[in-house]
Design brief:
The chain is of the alpha+beta class. It contains 4 helices and 7 strands. It is globular and about 40 Å long.
């Protein structure tokens, strides 16, 4: 990928699945290959990818209720605002459809907590024990971000 290559955020389509599966497996321990079947049924129309030179470089998987299942960006693109751009695309898409965005995050993942806090999320309630049963750090926090209604035309 060249230094001047343009990154584009577009809605997730089935054509992206070949790149999204490995991206999610590398970023999220325990991600199951068959999960893409669930994504294709429940999350199409509510998920976004970062594409550059025909390759998927990042993904946000969301659903119709404003729940973020996951967000992942390739390591060489992290800390450059691309995750925030994915989140902004989803927020804008859900504005007027959901009162808030919500998600769960591993309680020990402080980098992820900082990312979401910078993007307007706050913790709801106490940590949830054993939420991620298959992961070494199974406890989770529930985070949410209220959405303001869209401005009238």
């Amino acid at each position: 990928m060249g230094d001047d290559a343009e990154l584009e955020i577009v809605p997730l389509e089935k054509a992206h699945f070949a790149d999204v599966g490995p991206l999610l497996r590398s970023a999220l321990p325990g991600w199951q290959a068959n999960t893409m079947q669930v994504v294709s049924k429940k999350c199409m129309g509510y998920s976004f990818v970062i594409v550059c030179e025909g390759k998927t470089q990042g993904v946000l998987i969301g659903d119709e209720e404003g729940y973020i299942l996951c967000i992942a960006v390739k390591p060489f693109l992290r800390s450059q605002g691309h995750g925030t751009s994915l989140l902004k695309a989803y927020k804008e898409h859900m504005r007027g459809s959901a009162a808030a965005l919500t998600l769960h995050a591993q309680s020990q993942n402080t980098d992820l907590h900082r990312f979401y806090t910078r993007n307007g999320f706050t913790q709801e309630g106490s940590p949830i024990s054993n939420y991620y049963r298959r992961l070494p750090d199974p406890d989770a926090l529930k985070l949410s971000c209220p959405l303001t209604p869209p401005n009238p035309p």
